[in-house]
Amino acid sequence: MSEGQSPSPQPPIPGPCHEERGVATFLMAGGGTGGHVIPALAVARELRSRGHAAFFVGTERGLESKLVPREGFQLELIRIGGLKRVGLRQTVATLFQLPLSTLEVGRLMARRRVAAVFSMGGYVAGPPVIAALLRRTPVVVMEPNAVPGFTNRHIGRFVRRALIGFAETARYFPAGRTEVTGLPVREEFFAIPAKAAGGRFTILITGGSQGSRTLNQAARQSWPLFREAGLEVRIMHQSGPGACEELRAAFAEAGLAGEVVPFIADMPVAFAQADLVVCRSGAGAVAELAAAGKPAILSPFPFAADQHQLHNAEAFVRAGAALLIEDRELTGARLFEAVTRLAGDRGALERMGLAARSLAHPGAARRAAEILEEFR
């Protein structure tokens, strides 16, 4: 097993003298995508602020290889691949890697005297979680999706605590071991005030940092419809880098107010300006919508593992916080119709925003750290 380089010194490995002061070491499991890494980093920062040590286990190709060392945490690298929607070759390779990586992580846990494992799920979490269960080390999972992913669903009955984003997710874990904490979200989202009526109706469209082909195409098809209808709208569109120039040219031709950009660096500011958000429904996206109290049109990514984006969107619809338009149904005409209907009903928008805010859970990272401290 190799180690990533850390730009700042790590807290000492707890020994008997440290244990008297309550210092503990925690293993953070979960990588590959920002949805797994960023929340775990928020919890790790909270643990560090309390004087504890936290380190990560991940892969060289995952996003953790960039984000974790940048935050000053140590990253232990393992070799592991996925088991879902992969070919036979990858499946065989993963099954071969799994016991070896699990053994390596188990030795690492013994050497570092790990008090508990915090898991965000995903294939990277497999070896650390299995090693923890074999060693009877407590496992705390954070499951922000309405339906747990592959790893969390299969080890759910063995976890000590499950920190969930939706009350309905509790049924996948043992009774009495769940708590609705939500997902760590930047404090700036919680500070966004309700947007006053008046002025141009502002729509924020975002398919994430890389953009969404479906959202980009539907938005582009809708622009002539907004112009012909004479609806006073302002559009902020995060397109992703690949399609930006082409969409900018089409947007300029449409003559609408707003802008198309490849990436929005300050998303809380964009949320504050928006009357309505059109986006995918990953765990991070819906957590930000809830924190900001923003009404939304959600179009789930159709190839998300276990259809978790669809389940997230359906949970928001049941709460009255969003409209759902599935990817295969999202056209310019459908988007135009939905936006026009909501823009003409400020009461409905206000009710949706309040419903979204009711799903918000501030202090998720702090609460996760408090629960982990119970096992030191």
Question: Can you offer a commentary on this structure?
Answer:
Strand 10, helix 9 and strand 11 form a beta-alpha-beta unit. The strands form 2 sheets. The protein has an 8-stranded mixed sheet with strand order 1-4-3-2-5-6-7-8, sandwiched between helices. The N terminus is likely disordered. The chain folds into 2 domains: 196 residues, Rossmann fold (3-Layer(aba) Sandwich), CATH 3.40.50; 171 residues, Glycogen Phosphorylase B (Rossmann fold), CATH 3.40.50.2000. The chain is α/β, with parallel strands linked by helices and 376 residues long. The radius of gyration is 22 Å and the shape is elongated. It is built from 15 helices and 14 strands. Helix 4 packs across helix 5.
Salient structural properties:
Rossmann fold, alpha/beta, 14 strands, 376 residues, elongated, eight-stranded mixed β-sheet, six-stranded parallel β-sheet, 2 domains
